[in-house]
C-alpha cells in the first residue's frame, strides 16, 4: 500500500510540476516579447527624434541665422518657410537668443514657460557645451523639447527649440504594441515621457530599477502591482543615456494563462486520479480474488483430506454396524428391561448407520451417470419413511402435502439423502425445541408443488430457526450447533441439489425455518 501511495503522489505531482513549468515558460515568452517590443519602440523613437534634431540642426547651420541681431526679413522668411504649420513639432518652434529672449516663433504666441529660460538646466547645458539636448521645457510638466545650438565662429549665438506635444502621441511606437506603460528617461534619470506623468511619485530609485531592466528584463512591483518590464536604449546622435522602458501587468496577463493551465491541470489530475482509483480498485479486487482462490484451495485440500479420512472411518464403522444390526435382529427381549433396551439399541445403530452413510457420501460423491427419470413424490415418501424411524419423530408430527406427476432426471439415492437430511434436521430441531420448552407443540410441514417448469419442495418447521451465529456458515462442512450432528447434512444436500441443476435456499421465519428445494422438471414431448 505504501508503494501504491507513492505511485499516487508521483502521478499527481507530475501535472503540478508541468503546470509550474508551463507558467514559467509563458512568463519567459512574455518577457521575450516585451523585450522585442521595447527594442522596436526605442529604435523607432530614436529615428524620429534623430530626424527632428537633424532638421533643426540643418537650419541652425545656415549662416544668415543670427538671433542676436533680432529677426531680420530674410531670417523670418527662411524660418516661416521651414516651420510654418509644420507637422514635425506639434507645439511649435522658437528662435532664442543666448540670454533667453524669443526673437521668432511659430505660432507667434508660443508658450515657453513661466521661469526665465536661462535658469533651466537644459538651456544652460546647450549654451555651455554647444550640444543638442532633448528634455522637458520646464520642470516636470512638459512639453518635450528638442534644443539645437546655433554657433558662429565656435560661439553659441542662439538656440532653435522645437516643442512636442507628448500627450497627443506625437512619437511613433511609444504608446503602441499593447504595453500598459511606456516610460522615457534621460541620461540623468529624469522622466521625460509620458507627460503629464501618471499618478505615481517619481524617484531616483525607480529610475535605477528601470535602467536595470535593460540588462535583465523581469518582474517588478510597481505601485502595488506585479508588472513585467523590459527596457532598451534610445539612440539619438549626440544625445546619450536615453532609455525607453515598457511595463505590462503580469497579474492580468498571467491570470489568463493560469486559468487555461489550471483547467488543463485539473483535467490531468482528474484523469490521473480516476485512473489511479480504477487501478487501485482493480488491484484490490485482484488481491481479494487471489486471497479467495487461496482460501478455496486450502478448503478443497482440507475437504479432500477429510473426505479420505471420513471414507476410511465410515467403512470401518459401517462394517461394525452391519454386524451389530445382524446380531440385534436375532435377539428377543427376555424381560421388561429388554423390551426397552432393544429398540433403543436399534435406534442408535440406525443413527450411526446414517452418520456412516453421510461420511461415505461426503468422501465419495455419486456420479451423474446414475440419473434416471424419477417420480419426485416417491423419493420424498422414501425419505419420510426413513425419518419416521427416528425416535424424535414420535414427538414431532410431520404434515405432508405432495403433488404427484412431477418427474425429474435425478440420482434417486442422492436426492433421497438430501431430502432425508432436510426433514431429519427439522424433526430433530423440533424435538430439541420441545425438550427445552421453546415450543410445546412442534411440527414439521413438507409440501411438494409445481411452479412453471420447476418442482418446489418446502420443508418448514416452528423450531425457532437456525442459530444466528451459525447462519453465515450454514452451508459449510462440519458447521453445526447441535451436539448430535457433525455438520455434513446441509452441505451434502446443497451439493446434491446443485449437481442436478437445482437450488437449495434457507429463509428465517418468525417462529422457525423454511428450506426451499428447487429442481428442473423433465421436459415432456
Automatic annotation (TrEMBL):
It comes from the Bacteria. Residues 312-523 form the Histidine kinase domain. Its EC number is 2.7.13.3. The chain crosses the membrane at residues 261-283. Keywords: ATP-binding, Kinase, Membrane, Nucleotide-binding, Phosphoprotein, Transferase, Transmembrane, Transmembrane helix, Two-component regulatory system. InterPro entries: HATPase_C_sf, HATPase_dom, His_kinase_dom, HisK_dim/P_dom, HisK_dim/P_sf, Sig_transdc_His_kin-like_C. It catalyses: ATP + protein L-histidine = ADP + protein N-phospho-L-histidine. CDD domains: HATPase (cd00075), HisKA (cd00082). The keyword GTP-binding does not apply. It holds the Pfam family HATPase_c. One of its GO terms (molecular function) is phosphorelay sensor kinase activity. This is histidine kinase.
